[in-house]
Specification:
This protein has about 525 residues and is α/β, with parallel strands linked by helices. The protein is about 40% helix and about 20% strand. InterPro entries: ATPase_NBD, FGGY_C, FGGY_Carb_Kinase, FGGY_N.
Length: about 525
Amino acid sequence: MDKNHIKDEIVSGNISLGIELGSTRIKAVLVTDDFETAASGDFIWENELDNGIWTYSIDKVWTGIQTSYANMALQVHDEYGVDLKKIGSIGVSAMMHGYMPFNKKGELIVPFRTWRNNITGQAAEKLTKLFDFNIPERWSIAHLYQAVLNNESHIDDIDFITTLAGYVTWKISGQNVLGVGDASGVFPINNETKSYDQEMLDKFNDLDEIKARSWNVPDVLPAILPAGEKAGELTAEGAKLLDASGQLEAGSLIAPPEGDAGTGMVSTNAVKVRTGNISAGTSAFSMVVLDGPMKAVHRDIDMVTTPDGAPVAMVHVNNGSSDINAWVSLFGEFARALGVQVKPNDLYGTLFSESVKGDQDAGGLVNFSYLSGENITRVPEGRPMFVRKPDSKMNLANFIKTQLYSAFAPLKIGMDILLREEHIKTNVLIAQGGVFKTPVVAQQVLADALNTPITVMDNAGEGGPWGMAILALYASNKKNGESLADYLENRVFKDATGATLEPEPESVAGYDKFIDNYKAALPAEQEAVKSMKMTK
């Protein structure tokens, strides 16, 4: 689409906006009806550790959204010479899971508890046994039940709970709803009805601790909508929340809010059966769309859904690229101390390329990139730690390779359950995330780690928020019962291309040796949590 045509589409409002609140960035992406990115804007933010709880302030949620929107609107003005006033459809996505309880006045009654917290172990274990279904610690129902078990003072004031994407959607549309994919991180979903599992709802309500409450769990959970449905319209108040300048008009169609896992599936065309994707960022997760039931309940495998309600096996790890970023930042400081200014992309590229020269097993070095606790390896709190033996081969190439290896290590441990124990097969496994911006290196490491071909596509450059904009377009353009999978395959990704790397046998063997060292050193990481107490 040429520039003049894009301008006309913007003026007519024939465009879609995707907003995603990720772990380190809030981003707004404007997409044309032929799925091209017209403009984007972002806002960098960081979670805060408040009294042992990982959180983000609500003020920063709206500051971030308004800043990213303003930056996008400014780009529209500079690129196309027009002001952004009308948007056909809007969708909001965000980090899944966590806990946001509200009272009848619509007030958040405890600070947002994010997916990163490992504070619901008791509740998660009890609910997993009760349901015979894995309930991870970060799921909203685990947070709610743990608050009940703790007899927290806010419990009887709860009117409803929701996710971050659900909260923002409620504020801009007045509708308390979730997309089915995001809802699947709140409470288990029945894949036939695409609603909360009624048998499990009944079991939860029958708990003595819940009978003592003034509410039943169905009363406090958001309504569920599958992809393609309408989740209300942008209200006048909602338009002002997005656009502080007041130019944005009300009336945009609002799509069902989704989690970042769902938008990752959409942006990689991985919603069909036997497809899968991997998103690697601050956290990392893999999603495999299943063609049959799992053989067993696994505490390290989440059962969630695609945005249209198909069953998905998810391996979620709390820690991904944060430690890589910290070490690269340190090398950048060193360069500046020498009087050398290196652009971030060049710094990452140089260091990643150097890692290729390292030993296949990273020279016996081990790193735990745990800024927060890690559920897969049963580490309750974050203690980033680098460790080596006296006979390890310490050099720059091995050190950087260790950082890349360790970023995927918990994911590897979880994926081995799917690949080796459940024997789940995928036709394609597509990866996305900032770590893959440096060509080939991280992609090859991931292929070797999982011993599986990995594809990186070249047309979904904006990732999750682009995927959310696509879901908003689907909600406004769905015709003749066209499935989400067909919409993506036949329209969005019709001309898509990508690069696939196969695992290299020698490197696969080297990574397996690294993982053996990694597992052997885990007791040291667990002991660090016990011995090195957090500073309040």
